[in-house]
C-alpha cells in the first residue's frame, strides 16, 4: 500500500482577527530545529505547519554544528533567543538535562502522545524534558512494474536478502542496466541501512558483534547486492528522484526522502519492509522531539508554540509536508490510526 493512501491532508484554518476589538499581537518564538532543513521542507513547514493564532513561530534549521554551538552559548550565559528546540532523540539526549525545561505540566488538551515516546522524552529523569514531535522510519520502495521480476515464490512484504539480490539480478537482466538504487551519495543515509537493518539482521546486535563471522557474512551479502546496484547510487542523496525518473526500480531510504515517489499521483510505487537476514528483520525508528532551553526568552510563548505543534491537525500537516508521522492519537487514513 502506498504512503499516499495513508495521508490525511487537512487544511489549516485561516487566522481570524476580530474587527470590533483590538488585535492581539502574537509573540515571536525562534524554533531552532535539526529537522526539516531541506529548502522545500522549510517552506512547507513555514506555510502549512507553523501558522496559528497563539504565537508567531520563526523556523530556522541550521547545520548540526551551528545548532549546538549557538544553543550551548545561550545556555552558558542563561540568556538567549532560542525559544523551542526541535531535534532527534539522539541530539536531545546528548544535551545536559539541566539546560532543558520540565514540560510535565504542559496542557495539550485531549491530545494523547504515545506513552513509550513520552518515556523516552524524560531522558532518564523524572521530568518531561521533551515531547515527541514526529516519527518516521526507513522503508523499501518499488515501481510496481518491477514486481514481475521477483524471484519465484518471493513475497515482497517478507523478502530475504538472498531474494533481494536475485530480484536485483533479474531486473538487471532485462536490459543490462542495474535497477536497484541505494542512497550512497555524500548526504545519503546509507549508514542507517548498515546500522539499523543489514548488520542487526545478521548479527542480532547493534554494535557488539562487529568482529564476527556473522558480520563478515553481512558485508559479503551487501558486496553481492552492490554488483547489481545502479552505479549512480554514489551520487544519490534522496531516492525519490531516481525512482520517479525510472533510473532505479527498487530502492531503500528514509520515508521523508522517498515520499514524493510513494505519494506520486500515478500510484505506480509501493512501500515494503527491508529484507530479513539469518537473525531476523532489522528496524530503526526515527523520533524527533520538542524541548525548551532554560535560556528561552519567553517561556509562555515557547510553551504555546509546542502546544500548537502537538495538536492533531498540526501533526497531520507535518505528515503531509515532510512525511514524518504523528506521535499522537491522530487518524491518518481510512480505517487506520497512529494511536499508540
Write the SSE topology.
Layout: E1 28-33, H1 39-49, E2 56-60, H2 64-77, E3 82-88, H3 89-93, H4 115-120, E4 131-136, E5 138-143, H5 161-175, E6 180-181, H6 190-203, H7 213-226, H8 240-245, E7 250-254, H9 255-262, E8 269-272, E9 286-291, H10 299-309, H11 312-322, E10 331-333, E11 336-337
Parallel strand pairs: 1-2, 1-3, 6-7
Antiparallel strand pairs: 3-9, 4-9, 5-7, 5-8, 10-11
Helix pairs in contact: 1-11, 6-7
Q: What fraction strand? A: 15-25%
Q: Structural class, from helix and strand content?
A: alpha/beta
Give the CA-based shape.
elongated
- Element string (H = helix, E = strand): EHEHEHHEEHEHHHEHEEHHEE
Task: Write a structural description.
There is one protein chain. By secondary structure, the chain is of the alpha/beta class. The protein has helices at 39-49, 64-77, 89-93, 115-120, 161-175, 190-203, 213-226, 240-245, 255-262, 299-309, 312-322, and strands at residues 28-33, 56-60, 82-88, 131-136, 138-143, 180-181, 250-254, 269-272, 286-291, 331-333, 336-337. The protein has a 5-stranded mixed sheet with strand order 2-1-3-9-4, with helices on both faces. It has a 4-stranded mixed sheet with strand order 6-7-5-8, sandwiched between helices. Strand 1, helix 1 (39-49) and strand 2 form a beta-alpha-beta unit. Helix 1 (39-49) runs antiparallel to helix 11 (312-322) and helix 6 packs across helix 7.
Amino acid at each position: 500500500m502506498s504512503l499516499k493512501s495513508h495521508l490525511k491532508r487537512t487544511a489549516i484554518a485561516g487566522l481570524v482577527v476580530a474587527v470590533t476589538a483590538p488585535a492581539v499581537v502574537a509573540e515571536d518564538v525562534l524554533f531552532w530545529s535539526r529537522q526539516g532543513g531541506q529548502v522545500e521542507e522549510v517552506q512547507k513547514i513555514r506555510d502549512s505547519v507553523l501558522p496559528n493564532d497563539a504565537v508567531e513561530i520563526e523556523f530556522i534549521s541550521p547545520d548540526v554544528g551551528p545548532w549546538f554551538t549557538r544553543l550551548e552559548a545561550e545556555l552558558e550565559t542563561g540568556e538567549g533567543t532560542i525559544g523551542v528546540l526541535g531535534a532527534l532523540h539522539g541530539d536531545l539526549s546528548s544535551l545536559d538535562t539541566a539546560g532543558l525545561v520540565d514540560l510535565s505540566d504542559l496542557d495539550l488538551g485531549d491530545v494523547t502522545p504515545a506513552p513509550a515516546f513520552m518515556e523516552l522524552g524524560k531522558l532518564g529523569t523524572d521530568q518531561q524534558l521533551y515531547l515527541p514531535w514526529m516519527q518516521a522510519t526507513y522503508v523499501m520502495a518499488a515501481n510496481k512494474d518491477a514486481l514481475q521480476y521477483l524471484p519465484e515464490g518471493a513475497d515482497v512484504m517478507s523478502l530475504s536478502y538472498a531474494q533481494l539480490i536475485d530480484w536485483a539480478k533479474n531486473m538487471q537482466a532485462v536490459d543490462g542496466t542495474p535497477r536497484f538504487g541505494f542512497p550512497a551519495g555524500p548526504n545519503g543515509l546509507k549508514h542507517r541501512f548498515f546500522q539499523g537493518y543489514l548488520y542487526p539482521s545478521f548479527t542480532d546486535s547493534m554494535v557488539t558483534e562487529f568482529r564476527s563471522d556473522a558480520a563478515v557474512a553481512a558485508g559479503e551479502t551487501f558486496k553481492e547486492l552492490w554488483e547489481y546496484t545502479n552505479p549512480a547510487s554514489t551520487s544519490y542523496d534522496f531516492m525519490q528522484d531516481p525512482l520517479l525518473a525510472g533510473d532505479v526500480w527498487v530502492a531503500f531510504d528514509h520515508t521523508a526522502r522517498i515520499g514524493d515517489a510513494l505519494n506520486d499521483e500515478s500510484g505506480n510505487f509501493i512501500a515494503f519492509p527491508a529484507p530479513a537476514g539469518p537473525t531476523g528483520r532489522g528496524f530503526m525508528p526515527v523520533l524527533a522531539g520538542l524541548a525548551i532551553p532554560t535560556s528561552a526568552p519567553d517561556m509562555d510563548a515557547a510553551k504555546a508554540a509546542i502546544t500548537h505543534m502537538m495538536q492533531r491537525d498540526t501533526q497531520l500537516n507535518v505528515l503531509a509536508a515532510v512525511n514524518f508521522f504523528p506521535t499522537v492519537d491522530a487518524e491518518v487514513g481510512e480505517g487506520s490510526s497512529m494511536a499508540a
